[in-house]
């Protein structure tokens, strides 16, 4: 049996128990090997429902958070999705596995290089950029969905501007201690916002994030 298969099944069962219902999300998370995205000494804990350290004092998000945010984003196969905060690359691969055209931005060069290498090795075609994701990636806009995996003090305008009609932005907004997940949909009338849940993310650093106004 492939390594960690039982652990991965248990992780997905827990996600179901905790209320994740989107079968495409659950299917992608049951297929993608999360242990490939972390290094020792954390490999054995890869299927615990917890965030784990990666390089540059960043984290790979908790599986439940990945599942919840992806379910809120509700990406459809073939859609163009922008992710801000590549980190380990796990979330980007989940989206690619769901059939999306994924664009992802990371501000730390080391993480960007490691993730890019992993995408290639795993055979996923994901567009990567090293830079400040708070200003989005205008070259390929508009996006059907944008997912921000770091905590923002407010919703960055450039990201709203880069949403396609009907597109959705999922972003944790709040202070450095606690955030609420905001889901913003671009409608014909403007933007519709819903708020869900308290989360704790590492900060989104940048021109339209923390330390950079
Ligand atoms: N999605 C990641 C994964 O699957 O492993 C988890 C990401 S981690 C919680 C947040 C990431 O956002 C960190 O790698 C951090 O360096 C990055 N980040 C913070 N501010 C950023 C910005 N302005 N632009 C791009 N990346 C940023």
SSE blueprint and pairings:
Layout: H1 5-17, H2 23-31, E1 52-53, E2 59-60, H3 63-73, E3 80-84, H4 90-97, E4 101-106, H5 109-122, E5 127-130, E6 143-148, H6 157-161, E7 163-174, E8 179-186, E9 191-199
Parallel strand pairs: 3-4, 3-6, 4-5, 6-7
Antiparallel strand pairs: 1-2, 7-8, 8-9
S-adenosylmethionine is lined by residues 58-61, 84-85, 87-88, 90-91, 105-108, 111, 132-134, 149-150, 201-202, 204-206, 209.
Concise structural overview:
This protein has 213 residues and is an alpha/beta fold. It has helices at 5-17, 23-31, 63-73, 90-97, 109-122, 157-161; strands at residues 52-53, 59-60, 80-84, 101-106, 127-130, 143-148, 163-174, 179-186, 191-199.
Main attributes of the structure:
6 helices; binds S-adenosylmethionine; seven-stranded mixed sheet; globular; 28% helix; 213 residues; Rossmann fold; single chain; two-stranded antiparallel sheet; alpha/beta
Overall description:
With 213 residues, the chain is an alpha/beta fold. It has a single domain, classed as Vaccinia Virus protein VP39 (Rossmann fold, 3-Layer(aba) Sandwich). Helix content is 28%, strand content 25%. It is built from 6 helices and 9 strands. The strands form 2 sheets. It has a 7-stranded mixed sheet. Strands 1-2 form a two-stranded antiparallel sheet. Helix 1 runs antiparallel to helix 2 (23-31). It is globular. The mean pLDDT is 95. The chain binds S-adenosylmethionine. S-adenosylmethionine binds next to strand 2, helix 4 and strand 4.
